[in-house]
Amino acid sequence: MGRTNFNPIWCKIWKLSCPAKVKFFIWRTLHGTLPCRVTLANRHMKVSPLCPCCASGLEDTKHMLFQCQKAKEVWRRLGLDEIIAQACEVDRAEEAVLEFLLLMPDQDLSIMGFQNTREMIAITSWYLWWER
Questions:
Q1: What is the 3-state secondary structure (H, E, C) of the chain?
Q2: Which of 51, 30, 39 is nearest to 99 (CA)?
Q3: Burial, 80: exposed, middle or buried (Cβ in 10 Å; 0-12, 13-18, 19+)?
Q4: Fewer CB within 10 A of the terminal residue: the chain, N end or C end?
């Protein structure tokens, strides 16, 4: 049987040099199955959809990982704030920002000075989720 739904992001994820829990987190994020507050509120759970860290935005995947002030500070300290801002600039929905970052060409990622930028993005995203 041939692959009908091949997506290059899955190859990138499974080849990352990081713990399996991080890969599974990325997989869940890209499938839109993380229980963020917005998702829980939309499923009639009695929870405020506001971000518990900043209370100034709705906690969806994009906000939690990239737009919350706490997340922005983490990315800034890692020196990845510009690439994150570039990824968020285009009108990308939640999971699409993470997918865009992980699919960036190697030459675009290597100019940041890190050898394992994809792994850093994946692990930092997991950390932001875990830390919340």
A1: CCCCCCCHHHHHHHCCCCCHHHHHHHHHHHCCCCCCHHHHHHCCCCCCCECCCCCCCECCHHHHHHHCHHHHHHHHHHCCHHHHHHHHHCCCCHHHHHHHHHHCCHHHHHCCCCCCHHHHHHHHHHHHHHHC
A2: 30
A3: buried
A4: N
Three-state secondary structure call for residue 50? strand
Chain-centre distance for alpha carbon 22: 11
**CA gap 8, 109 in Å, rounded:** 17
Query: Nearest CA to 39 among 63, 59, 62, 67?
Result: 59
Residue 132 contacts by C-beta under 8 Å, 6 or more apart in sequence? 52, 53, 64
SS3 call for 58: strand
Of the candidates 17, 41, 24, 40, the residue with the CA atom closest to the CA atom of residue 119: 17
What percent of the chain has a predicted confidence (pLDDT) above 90? 35
